[in-house]
Amino acid sequence: MNLTEAVLLGIVQGLTEFLPVSSSGHLVLSQNLLGLTEPLLVFDISVHVGTLFAVVIYFFKDIVAILRALVKWIRVLPDTKAASDLLANDREVRIAMLIIAGSVPTALLGLVFKEIAETLFSSVTIVGVTLMLTGAVLWGTRRFGAGGHGIRRCTIGNSIVIGVVQGLAIIPGISRSGATIAAGLYLGLDRTTAARFSFLLSIPAVAGAGLLGAGDLMGPTELSFNIIAAGTLASCLVGYASLTLLVWMVGRGRLHFFAPYCIVLGLIALVVSL
After folding, report:
1. Segment 176-229, tens digit of pLDDT
2. 97 and 87 in contact (C-beta within 8 Å)?
3. Fewest 10 Å CB contacts: which of 21, 110, 165, 252?
4. How far apart are CA 237 and CA 233, in angstroms?
């Protein structure tokens, strides 16, 4: 991989991590198109860290408010009634609890399917099928209007379901953002809440995956620091722009606009893999 290829793949990651078209699926297809037939897991982890930086920057105020509320809740834990009241009435404490609940199934599925997912990273056929599945899920969201409920009516069960969906998105071709936002809409969340919760829930998942892959980053690799840094920076900058665009589109009920692209690209991948 040269510097130009690293930047191009970083741009692909930045565009597709948040736009609901599957970043991992596009990385598989892009690497095959560039002739990089071996799964470059170190580089893949690096560009995912770049988009993690993007979402942390975008939701920085939300993250700080949630962490402060969580610390406040932990301090009053000895007082059962006070802790219960905070959980019921403090919006940020509730979000923190929902994120923790949703992160559990994501982590379990990630650990169980990690090796399987790495194998799937070399299969263009699998990517084709899962991209079409992503397209079908996105197309189904067109029926949801501006209604729905906010985070206060989101249950722990809802959060666990969304966490399971996020865990399954380890399979290349399944869009994490598309699948989790769609799951939130199907469960009755309003558009803004579904998008916001999806991206906040992604932070511990991506951070956890990065920590698990830290050994690969520290170990020997054929990629130079400049190559990894260029891809990471490109994914961060482009990721921030694509995140801004998607939040705007979801708020206007346009998530399903991405469905035809996923379906057509999936068909192309299946034809190419024959």
Report:
1. 999 999 999 999 999 999 999 999 999 998 888 777 666 555 555 566 778 888
2. yes
3. 252
4. 6
Q: For the chain, how long is the longest CA-to-CA vector?
A: 63
* Distance in angstroms between the alpha carbons of the first and the last residue of the chain: 26
141 Cβ neighbours under 8 A, 6+ residues apart: 181, 182, 185, 186, 255, 256
d(CA 6, CA 220): 18
Structure confidence at residue 220 (pLDDT)? 55
Residues 6+ apart with CB under 8 A from 10: 47, 50, 230, 231, 232, 233, 234, 235, 238
What span, in angstroms and rounded, lies between the C-alpha atoms of 70 and 61?
14
DSSP designation for 76: T
CA distances from 21 to 13, 111, 259 (A): 10, 23, 8
pLDDT tens digit string along 133-162? 999 999 999 988 778 888 888 999 999 999
Q: CA 54 to CA 147: how far, in whole Å?
A: 29
- Locate the domains of the chain by residue range: 3-273
In whole angstroms, give the CA distance from residue 108 to residue 164.
Answer: 9
Q: Chain-centre distance of CA 203, in angstroms?
A: 8
The larger pLDDT score, comparing residue 27 to residue 204, is at 204
Minimal CA–CA distance to 92: which of 120, 71, 114? 71
Percent of the chain with pLDDT over 90: 44
What lies within 8 Å, CB to CB, of 33 at 6+ separation is none
